Amino acid sequence: MTVCGREGPVLHFAVCEDEEVCREGLVRELEAWAREEQEVCSVEQFPTADAFLFAWEERKDTDVLLLDIEMPGMDGMALAKKLRGMGERLGIIFVTGNPEFALEGYDLEAVSYIVKPIKRERLHMALNRARERGAHREAILAPLSAGEVEKVYLSDICCLEGSGHETLIWKRDGGSLSCRTGLRQMEQEIEERSEAFFKPHRSFLINLGRVDKIGKKEIRMENRMLVPVARGKWEPLNQAYMAYFRREARREAD
Questions:
Q1: Model pTM greater than 0.70?
Q2: CB contact set of 212 (below 8 Å; sequence gap of 6+)
Q3: 84-112 b/e (C-beta count within 10 Å ≥ 16 → b)
Q4: Smallest Cα–Cα separation from 158: which of 96, 219, 243?
Q5: What's the sign of the alpha-carbon dihedral 9, 15, 20, 24?
Q6: Residue 167 forms beta bridges with which residues?
Q7: pLDDT tens per residue, range 177-203
């Protein structure tokens, strides 16, 4: 389900709630918030934590998750702990009938903890806060054809591929953008904003946080794309990969 407002980056929401009436009510509130704020957003519904986790491992395209806690199977708190344990930074808004988990929820860096019955004002404040947190993510402006420019969050990029005087930006959702800027210039711009990228081949720049598997001859990215590893790059790649995860672990500890 997609709600259209002003032009801009799409905010991807997910609602994970086992009670259908409550789940659909949250979707309606998201739609109302998007209209009021003139946002462009997509909303997906999941009846269980396991269903959300399966979709997340396939796409990882959710910006904000509205999450019930007490559900059959894996509960919402266990799901949140699993996501944080994987290093995932999506915004989480707990929506539950039980106030007892509030402290534990905030320990997991929840955007908000809302107790049912849900008050519209409280929910909309939480959605505003989630949007503000997302707005602080590092991004670049990609010049496209016909003078168009698109804002691209670095965390959404799997890799960049040089193609003549242009660069293909391959995103984690499987989509791509053709940018009218060369790879070298894109590399310089990204290096000013992030330490998460590495160049394993003269034609590719990868996001280390979006790597699935490293082989001696190729890298498999989260979007299933295979990126070649140039001769002499395998050891520096592994060193950069380990350094990236050590930095992320320190950041989590702080």
A1: no
A2: 220, 221, 222, 224
A3: beeeebbbbbbbbeeeebeeebeebebbb
A4: 219
A5: negative
A6: 162, 179
A7: 999 999 999 999 999 888 899 999 999
